Amino acid sequence: MSLNTLKKEFEARFSGVPRCFKSPGRINLIGDHTDYNNGFVMPAAIDRYARMAVSFNETENLNVGSIDLGEMLSTDLNQLEAKGRSSWENFFIGVLAIFGEKGIQLKGIDCVFTSDVPVGAGLSSSAAIACCFSFALNEMFEAGFTKNELVEIAQQTEHRFAQVMCGNMDQTASLFGKEGQVFKFDCRSREKTFHSLNLKDFTLLLVDTKVKHALAETAYNQRREACESAVKLIQNRYPEVESLRDAKHEMIQGVGLSGKLKVCAEFVIEENERVNLAEVCLDQNDLTGLGKLMWASHKGLSEKYEVSCPELDFIIERTYGLPYIKGARMMGGGFGGCCIVLIQANAVKDFKKLIEAPFSKEFNSSPEFYQFELVDGTEEYD
């Protein structure tokens, strides 16, 4: 949506002159389900945005219009309570409530928003909304929060108001992204190491299965609980281990982890190792090595961590052995969403043809394909 159209949508609902903000979705090149284990990930911000026009009003109300859904939220500043957990309203209520908890003197807010970040595709559509509104309020209230503090506000909004116990990767990518770059992110120390993405004649392609996951459902939180349980058992013998980021394969053997706890712990250790190796591949422009790590990541996510689905596996299986593809993996929380494919740029059309018809025949639906640019993070624009 153009800036002019966004402002007109605001003017159709509210008075006043708004300020406009945008916050990107994100990809994650490699490293999934490592973020809430204080591990390593490799995200980047992409040119799909949540966009907002925001102004103060003369009331004690928060008023937010969803342009895409044609819905309106209106709530008193003294009644900022979570709605049903799948509601988009929670992100606005939650962010504003947390600003109030941090001592900011709240004022009435009018806002309209739109987003072209695909929902449920693993591209962090919810984080884009929470980060955009957090950034907007920080500027408008002149609150002075750092970007790291805004990450925490957006993350706490997910935890407390949407009941999604996410890590901090999505919010960090949305707020800190840099044009043309991915970054290795240490989810514990928050250290970010940026790398230019030099893909030569290759590109990254997203294939959206259109299977819509809901991270608030039990499966995601069960994986997190399994990891936390594994850490507690490891700590009985290795008290220095604070999270699975600190664990080693020999520790798993040493404490006799078994069943789901063992498999989850093994995957997280291996996925962290893959992120570190991927950083070396980027430094050496080794796309073949990077692609192999992507395939290995998918295998672990599908067979060990069990967060893939038939649609994702169907697509990945058809990337093996193709001369114009270096690697591919599912991306995001899982249970649907996107695959990310490292593919020769001039072969994208051929790959689409290879996938579309058999996918439609197998699942009675059509995947969607996205090409994208890597962009800067959340910002005000005019």
UniProtKB/TrEMBL annotation:
Top-rank lineage group of the source organism: Bacteria
Keywords: ATP-binding, Carbohydrate metabolism, Galactose metabolism, Kinase, Magnesium, Metal-binding, Nucleotide-binding, Transferase
Gene3D superfamilies the UniProt entry points to: 3.30.230.10, GHMP kinase, C-terminal domain
Domain GHMP kinase N-terminal: residue ranges: 91-178
Keyword Kinase: yes
InterPro entries the UniProt entry points to: Galactokinase (IPR000705), Galactokinase_CS (IPR019741), GalKase_N (IPR019539), GHMP_kinase_C_dom (IPR013750), GHMP_kinase_C_sf (IPR036554), GHMP_kinase_N_dom (IPR006204), GHMP_knse_ATP-bd_CS (IPR006203), Mevalonate/galactokinase (IPR006206)
GO biological process terms, semicolon-separated: galactose metabolic process
UniProt domain GHMP kinase C-terminal: residue ranges: 281-348
Enzyme class: transferase
Keyword Ubl conjugation part of the UniProt annotation: no
Entry GO CC: cytosol
EC number: 2.7.1.6
GO molecular function: ATP binding; galactokinase activity; metal ion binding
Residues covered by the Galactokinase N-terminal domain: 8-55
Family, as annotated: Belongs to the GHMP kinase family. GalK subfamily.
NCBIfam families found in the cross-reference section: gal_kin (TIGR00131)
The protein's name: Galactokinase
Species in which this protein is naturally found: Roseivirga echinicomitans
